[in-house]
Amino acid sequence: MSISIVFRYTTVPSAVILITMELIYFATAFVCGFGIYQLKLPPLIGFLMAGFILNLAGYKSTELLETIASLGVTLLLFSIGLKLKIANLIKPQVWAPATIHIILSSALFSGFMLLLGVFALPLFVDLSWQSALLVGFALSFSSTVFAVKVLEERGEMASLHGKIAIGILVMQDIFAVIFLAVSTGKVPNIWALGLIVALPLFRPIMYWVLNRSKHGELLPLFGFFFALVAGYNAFEFAGLKGDLGALIIGMMFAPHKKAGELSKSLLSLKDILLVGFFLSIGLSAELTAHSLVVALILVLVIPVKTLLYYILTNLFKLRARTSLLTAFSLANFSEFGLIVCAVAASSGMVTSEWLAVIAIAVSITFVIASPLNKRSNELYVKIERLLLKFESKTRLAEELPVNLNDTKIVIFGMGRIGTGAYETINATHPDVVAGIDIKPEVVDKHIKRGRRVLIADATDPDFWQRVNHSHVEMVMLTMPKHMQNIFALEQLQASGYKGQVTAIANYPDQQKELEEMGIDSTYNFYLEAGSGFAEHVKQTLFP
Question: Locate the RCK N-terminal domain: which residues (predicted)?
Fold first, then answer.
């Protein structure tokens, strides 16, 4: 979808009507999202419900809402690019499962639909093998928007399973771009060559501008500009897919030291715009009895799709838990399926009713996958023994066991707070503290500076079973996401750890939750930062 400003094409009264409609849409989304969140489920389920409720009430998607949704997806892909490294895409455990999965699932799903056509089921009976293959191809994709939302909420974007899932999704996006280019006859124009040559040359200038955008309101505006102008619109002008442009521009900034800060500055804006995306799915579907029944039938293949992801990633030496969490992140249908079906419908290969079917099926899989991912670690613990029987015996470097012998204090999360705690303790009690972080690049940075930092995932139940923590007297949980610290505490307690545990929190209600779980002490970063600063000043003025 081309991103444009709706007001340019409307009179003032009609623009006011559009704004009023969007206010109704977003108000409904808030009410539904708030209600769902009180049930301890992800708000995006509520946003999807709001779209369908509005649809049933007679409302339809508007051009402004579609623009908001498109902006959200573009910023999302730009944000993914900021965290993505080319090295992650060329790993066998990424490109191989992605390629094999899309081939196998397309074949299996199309065969399933042709079989249903034999029984004269509505919509299926009219499918040729070519049409069935196209719909099967559409169903083989998993949702980038959903996976990133789930991984960000759980603080797992940097985890191994998070990186594998995102890598697979990017590979799928590449396949989708190739398909759209071939099927629509849209080929890159002469400007595409100039764009490919110009981007590396402009990179130093882009970095120079980023460095001088500092930390204020210019930083998110910088990201907005490069995602939409240098990314989306420049690639569209060159005959390439705009979303791919946003992703590539983001990847160009990934090595920069301010990439993480840039991503955080766009977070709230991106999340608000993505509400429009989830609303548009429900509002765009043409709800009929036939389309609902067919969508429910298609949802039956989700377990097969998820199992395929698990088997393929497991074959490429990922641990059982990593494979399972990767598969759960991808256990849905994708918004790209809608685009593929739209192309097929425009060429007459499938009826337009299939668009409604895919839209409903996408929504249903989101609703199913949200609680599934929320409880993924709990589910893994329950079926761990079964999965371990089929686990690969060979380990990747990121998943090797951690040795904590002779360690008395362990710090999980070696960001600024964790690093500060490490330095303070190590200054007075050297060789008794170790840091643990999930990011290889963070671990490498600390090792180069002479710190004892190891790579591991504190939310991994297997980690707590493998590690020997009998000598550890204190564990400090300084991970940035509250739910990471919560689950790490649960696993620590379940492993029989008897020492002290302390954790950081951003808000009083988070402190209360940790204290109710039996933690020894909590540190409210925002409340106590002032006390720490005052103590520093006092020591400076009155040594």
Answer: 406-528
Kindly state whether residues 220 and 244 are assigned to the same domain.
yes
Same domain, 119 and 205: yes
Sign of CA dihedral 300, 363, 176, 261: negative
pLDDT for the residue 453 = 92
Phi, psi of 256, deg, nearest 5:
-70, 145
pLDDT value of position 8: 43
3-state DSSP of 326-392: HHHHCCCCCHHHHHHHHHHHHCCCCCCHHHHHHHHHHHHHHHHHHHHHHCHHHHHHHHHHHHHCCCC
* Statement to judge: residues 363 and 483 lie in one domain: no
Q: Is residue 329, in this structure, part of any structural domain at all?
A: yes
Whether 284 is in a domain gets the answer no
d(CA 458, CA 426): 21
Neighbouring CB atoms inside 10 A of 375's CB total 12
Mean pLDDT by 10 residues, the chain (543 residues): 43 54 90 88 83 89 87 86 79 92 95 91 86 92 87 79 90 79 68 82 90 86 88 84 84 87 87 88 78 91 95 91 93 82 75 82 88 87 87 77 83 90 89 89 91 86 73 89 86 84 89 90 74 58 60
What CATH number corresponds to the domain at position 527?
Answer: 3.40.50.720
Query: In this structure, are 372 and 485 located in the same domain?
Result: no
d(CA 63, CA 84): 31
User: According to the model, what pLDDT value does residue 530 have?
Assistant: 58
* Cβ-proximal residues to 87 (8 Å cutoff; 6+ apart), any chain: none
The β-bridge partners of 454 are 436
141 assigned to some structural domain: yes
534 half-sphere exposure, CB direction, 13 A CA radius: 5
Which of 337, 362, 388 delimits the end of a domain?
Answer: 388
Q: How many Cα atoms within 13 Å fall on the side-chain side of residue 307?
A: 7
Q: Phi, psi (5° rounding) for residue 437?
A: -140, 155
Burial of 447 (0-12, 13-18, 19+ CB in 10 A): middle
- Nearest 5°: the CA angle 207, 254, 143 is 135
Q: What is the pLDDT of residue 534?
A: 58
Handedness of CA 200, 442, 331, 369 (dihedral sign): negative
Taking the C-alpha atoms of residue 501 and residue 497, their distance in angstroms, rounded to an integer, is 9
**Same domain as 419, residue 467:** yes
Domain boundary among 361, 388, 415: 388
Residues 6+ apart with CB under 8 A from 151: 157, 159, 162, 165, 166, 329
DSSP class of 227: I
**361 and 422 share a domain?**
no
Q: Are residues 378 and 527 in the same domain?
A: no
What's the distance, CA 141 to chain centroid? 15
Measure the CA dihedral 368/29/166/310, to 10°: 0
Domain residues for the domain of 514 are 401-541
Same domain, 85 and 228: yes
Residue 175 within a domain? yes
Residue type, 21: M
CA nearest neighbour of 41 among 369, 492, 403:
369
